[in-house]
Amino acid sequence: MIIPSIRQIVLSLSLFVLFSSTLAQETATPNGIADNRSEALALTGATLYLPDGQYLDNGTLLIRDGLIVDVLPAGDVPDGYFALDMRGRYVYPGLIDINTGYGIPAPGRPAPGSGAEVLESSGLAYNANDAIRAHYRAVQDFKPDQSRAEELRKLGFSMVLSLRADGIARGTSSLVLLGSKNANESVLLADAAAHYSLSKGSSRQSLPSSPMGSIALLRQTYLDAQWYEQFSPRPFTDESLEAWINNRSLPQIMEVSDWQQALTLHEVAQEFGTQYLIKTGDDAYQRAPELAATGASLIVPVIFPDTPEVADPFVADDVSFSDLKHWELAPFGLRLLNEQGIRFAVTSAGAEEKFHENMSLAVRNGLPASVAIDALTRVPAQMLGVENRTGSLQSGRLANLLVSSAPLFTEDARLLENWVQGERFILADSFDQHRGRYQLQAGDRTLAVTLDVDAANIEASVVDASSGEAVEGTDISVDLTTEMININFALPGDAGNTRLSGWSIANGWQGSGLTSSGEAVNWQLERVADLPVADADEQLAPEPVPQLPSPVLYPFAAYGVETLPLQQDTVIRGATVWTNEDSGTIQTDVLIRAGKIAAVGSDLDAGNALEVDGTGKHLTPGIIDEHTHIALFAINEGATNSSMVRMRDVVDSQDVNIYRNLAGGVVAAQQLHGSANPIGGQSSLIKMRWGQSPQGLRIEESAEFIKFALGENVKRSTNPASVRYPQSRMGVEQVFIDAFSQAREYEQNWNAYNALSAAQQRNTSAPRRDLVSDAMVEVLNGERYVTAHSYVQSEINMLLHVADSFDFTINTFTHILEGYKVADKMAAHGAGGSTFSDWWAFKWEVREAIPYNAALMQQAGMVVALNSDDAEMSRRLNQEAGKVVKYGGVSESDALKMITLNPAKLLHLDDRMGSIRVGKDADLVLWNDHPLSVYALAMTTWVDGVAYFDRERDQQLRRDIVSERARIISKITAE
Amino acid sequence: MRNISMIVLASLLVTAMPGTMAWVPTPAPDQAEPIAITNATIHIGDGSVINNGVLAFDQGVITYVGTDANRPEFFNHQLINLQGLHIYPGFVLPNTSLGLLEIANLRATDDVAETGDINASVRSAIAYNTDSELIPTFRFNGILTAGVTPEGGLISGRSSVFKLDGWNWEDSLLKADAAMHMNWPDRIRRQRNETTGVFENSDNPDYPYMIQMLNSLFQDARTYNGSPLNLNLQAMQPLFTGESKLFIHANDARDIIASVQFARSYGVTDIVLVGGRDALKVKDLLIAESVAVIYESVHALPAQEWFDVDEQFKVPFQLHEAGILVGIGGGETALDSQRNLPFFAGTAAGYGLDRETALSMITSHNAEILGVDDRIGTLITGKDATFFISTGDALDMRTNQLQEAFIQGRMIDLFGNQQALYQRFLERYSTLPMEQ
Fold first, then answer.
1. Same domain, A807 and A867
2. Same domain for A673 and A684
3. Which one of A609, A693, B18, B297 counts the least CB within 10 Å of its CB?
4. Residue A715: which domain range?
5. Which of A257, A934, A962 is best to mutate for the B interface (most B CBs within 10 A)?
6. How far is B181 from chain A (nearest CA, A)?
7. Do A842 and B435 touch (CB under 8 A)?
8. Cβ neighbours of B425 in A, within 8 Å
9. What is the model's pTM?
10. What confidence category does residue A4 fall into, taking pLDDT thresholds of 50, 70 and 90?
């Protein structure tokens, strides 16, 4: 027990007098005579939950005018306080839900469109993008909603953060109290926090159309705000930017859907020198270590998944492995976050009436109760900077109290009262004090009766007076209110019930009634003894922390593992080694050390390295897919020029296609933006480091790339309703010329500004940073390479001319199915080609695509790669390479290079990947057969010397998946 | 008796190229004289191989398969010495929209599906376009026969089997109206939950209605007596007499059970399951009901994220081991990729199947499933001389190099538009000064 020192009490009292007050609308005129009061209450005898997480038994809580005055140990109630007996009750600070839409009209949904793009904003004096709603203030819409307030109070909340979940910038939320007062007296903070998300909400505009587009819009808006605020007067009126600028000093709350977005948005926050409080989904525990490393605080729901349908084994197969694991581990999620030292607040959103049940389960599963309580009191108060006003039982805090029948988040706990700034709401009657043994005297009958309490119900039974055992054949029911009692009972042989009504007296109840035969009786129920009490200390005693039922896997998916495979020094002996170097294909040994190829040669001294027998097998450099869309949450952003979006913002490192790629010998890939627009987004280059976070997949210090696209897709050929420019190949050229011309001008403006002295710069406004033009300038300056989706010869030739006229080089034409028709021009320009082996005919512009394309482009002197653009094909790119031997007679060693060294060259990774040479990355594949054969299987795939795929281990993982599924499904069916 | 070596034959072909620049190759003339091919590695298509084999054919029909190169009747045969090259039965693509579809996103070129739910009467036979630009690319890889299938609705219509060389659909037909196609409706729909954004399975609310539509069709077909005339009910009749097969398109295990039992309950005699993703789960039913399977999705991703990485690749082997008649198709692959049928079989051969059995799955098994095994599918005396010569293993893309191909003894032109374009630009670049 902690007893505050007198000094602390005095100090806090004086602070209270100086600074604190509750909310009272002095400006309002009452209808009637003045009703000003000073309410002073002393809650006595309760067990109080103190800020340090300890309980004060039999404490006294002093309240005056809606504020906590003091917390005292047992003793006399000071003069002037009306004492309320709270014996047997547990009193907590009222709970705070930091993520609700309470009292705010729900945002509308955009009406379904016609298929034509909506490119204009609403036209009001707000942002050019309707999803930027920084100007929105919840306080202007907030109206207390008593029925919803009651629901929230029943969950224990006395205060919530009300936000309108609409838009990418959502404006500000209000911190409001859940009492019966009007808005004037319920709003504690009008602008409590600024909110953000990746969802454009009710905006009718077509853009952004993807999460990476949303992130790009966020970035641009940060920059726009910086630019806009330089001006006085402003260059134009944008109330959203104005508000954005003002909102920067508030807590910044970002809502994301999963842990991968959380990590990404944390990076975005860092780019702009801010920090988000991140509202996550229910999966945050699946990557707790990485989330902890960000240092960000989280707002997490307590949603546990519904039990999967597994009774029918045919249906059960459709339940994913991760869903089964999530079902089992989600109730341990909060504990896992806590164990990583993550500071988090909890929201009831999504759990609603299951909130307490779920919290109790989380606590039973090892979340310390004090952390659970903090997550709903002190932590949200701190997040909003109001810890001096609420969130704990200390003097000066609002008298927001939650009264419980037992320690919070234990199974027995029932919420009895919820006080909101001193306003008392009874949630449930408590009859716990009536538990006991009684003697019932009704007319000439005397019965021994016990009254017990189970949850909210009185359980009465007729017992044997000496043994206390229930008497067979008797029936008794007791219905109790705070004012009245009603008893019905029947003994063996009675024709019906004896019915009694009455009122309480000092030691029980008395009253009158009728027997089963209709005779009037007087009666008395007198307490004779207590029932044994559950020991409160026992209830508080920490239960042993249960074991996790199964480990968290990395990734949290099928083929995930508990601990990631590590780099291991390895020597592969006697394989047929396809070096892609001058030495050609030779039978030799290859030594891997520290993730690099350390030696190639016969009879290598490998020290302690793991020996792998390569006899009869083939060792090749790992396959590099120049064009993939696996492991991405989204592919296309819809703007004509989307150069500002970054595919690295939407990497899904848990996509099983990464593992399937490894099983097909793929070690790395360029994740490209789609082809919905002439200028697509910035590429992400990854290695298939299965199990790592999105950040962990990145190829470090790689060159930067961007997707361009030409032809049918960018002119929206399959959407007859489309109105977006361009609608013809003629317009496509103009898009490029325009974008590069603007970028030139943009660069000149910046160069001129940067050339100014510091003093001059102070007197000049800086040009606007434009992420679209930034990327285009990088292209012009050779700092960002172009991968251009293209099919027919006319458009290829066009882009060559555009690039030549702006003096840069198209790095790679991808798809490039008519490349064979202008291969000489591409070779002269210096472009490479990354093509399909044999795709064609699926649309008009590929009608003259021929499978000899790769051979012809190579013959013309281009660097040629074969890519997949397809999750299925990517896992057998070696077969695609085999096809160019069939079509066009490419040599086998050149064919292999088209999926290894050549894509490495096109991606500017050939200094470290793509061939088996000492010093290069140990990205290798051991095949059981000729690597271009249709029969060849990858036996082991190494990335950076880590065997991320191994066929033997794969067999074990399959068995593990089957047995783990069976275990969890048995658990479900046993429930 | 004239002896021609294969090498000479191939070089004749190359020199002939510039002259044959037609958009689609001209159909081949009938076999003019008997031919005996010797010194060949003959893949019969039933799992066996004859080394140093001899294959003779006359008037489009195989007259001899064996090892005796000196049979007296060869006196008037053109003799071709293959010097060990391979002979394969023409591959059979069992379920395709080839000839009905040219370019998927150009509606004008799409004749794959008729409107409506019940289209028993429609026939692919009369819509098959012999001049499709895709056909030469299929032949180039050894596919010489195709089951051309209408799609869409619950009953899509009737498929026919075509020889992939001919002046018109009529001449190209190998078997008209070979099968009726039923698409079993999905009982589960996968839809995006608008609140959570997650894709979820839910019961298809239209399922009972669709099943009732099928029930009433089959009931009415069984009692159909010609009056009043109903073209759909009339078209159903061969299903009950064994003249036509019912091809059921279904993948989900429960759909397979429901649809097979449905067909049996109406007395359909010959049932083939097309798709068959979950066939292994219900193999005992398929065996008991003698249902063959066209496995459509070798080059596809596993249906669930937790399934074995190589699930699709090994199912043909597993079904075969279970005793089911399995053919490999490519119907779930984009039409232009279906020319890779031999490599679907080759991939499956990497996962348990022996190579000759894998070959059977795209030759004799498919022929049997389509009901044309009396004519094609294996290289045995009396069957059509529909085969090709490859320099190497035709299931492996590296070595699938066709020298010649014959359909009913007619030596077809393998040189298509793609080869013509290749030739044109090969020459262009060999005469241009190139920057290297």
1. yes
2. yes
3. B18
4. 623-910
5. A934
6. 24
7. no
8. 820-821, 823, 852, 856
9. 0.93
10. very low
